[in-house]
Amino acid sequence: MSVGMVGAGQLARMTHSAAIDLAIDLVVLARSEDDPAVRAGARCLIGEPDDPQALARLAAEVDVVTFDHELVPNDMAVALTEAGHQVRPGARALHAAQDKLVGRNAFARAGLPVPDFAGIDRDPAAEVVRFGDERGWPVVIKSRSGGYDGRGVAIAAGPDEVSTAIASLPSSLLLAECYVPWVQEVAVVGARSPSGDWVVYPPVATSQVDGICHELVMPAALAPPVAGRVQELARTIAEALDATGVIAVEFFVTAADAVVVNEIALRPHNSGHATIEAAATSQFHNHLRAVLDWPLGDTTLRAPVAATVNVLGAADGSDPARLLPQALTVTGTSIHLYGKAAAPGRKLGHVTSLGSDPEETLARARRATALLTGQPTPP
Predict the structure, then answer these.
(1) pLDDT-derived band of residue 108, with 50, 70 and 90 as boundaries?
(2) What pTM did the predictor assign?
(3) In what order do the strands lie in the sheet with 43-46?
(4) Most CB contacts within 10 A, which of 26, 92, 144, 200?
(5) CATH placement of domain 116-178
(6) CATH code that applies to domain 182-373
(7) Which residues, 6+ apart, have CB-to-CB distance to 91 below 8 Å?
């Protein structure tokens, strides 16, 4: 069997590793032969994700087309489907992840808990001010598409901050939302096959700095009813969208244990990286199994706790690979470097540790990460 993945970044690189285990021929659509998945040995076609001819070439070579990002224009995903190709998660589902307003409307129609929201497009500043005056400040302003790793989201505490907030965003098509006073951010990763089979991993507690995920602990410290609630909501979203493959759903949890849907991704996700070592079946194996409509794998954890720390590029632009030998002295950790060109703040890898105590397990992953980035090692 063969799978085509649009995109050749670190998600495709780790999917390629899983494909080798399952003897699946993975073909990636890469922008460059320097892309991480290509450097790891994945067979590639060179082309842009918004080039219909490149997409058609990829689809013609494989049994199923899937994605490691949301940068394919939705009409092109629709065209591939209409041409008879298997596109998973499916163009309609993909649209909900590509356009936050489309997603919010789909979730609201399904009765899912989302912040109060409104599309903003004709007169952005005036519309956001009106939204805030009517529904309360602060207001969260998001680009409907193209935002990731802290980009595409701004918060205006009052009317005088709206213009500056909008100017910081990469798109003029916007979404305004009521601010959710959350106390914890969690994510749930699951996988769904075209036959409707479903598996889900334990919820993950995520820690963001400037909108970029820095650390994750699995399972999140949630009351059992809340953990069950977010897992069930992830399944409801997957079914409502008829999504196939891996789905990741980010949630806000309030002090009263109320749960609000924040974002979704219909692909392997940063919040599921620990599953490579921590789960009986990784998210990458289950993504491939799901898009091929194969039986899905066991998501049971191999240890009571897993912690992942992202390796972000150091301020001096140095490559963490040069410090890898020192980091490998931290026992009980698994280091993954993505083979990307080093740059300050860029995600260059991750470190996962397994254990029984959340604080000690996270501390080990932090020590190895600090050694990789030349930072003082925490105690």
Answers:
(1) very high
(2) 0.95
(3) 43-46, 25-30, 2-6, 64-67, 86-87
(4) 26
(5) 3.30.1490.20
(6) 3.30.470.20
(7) 74, 77, 78, 80, 81
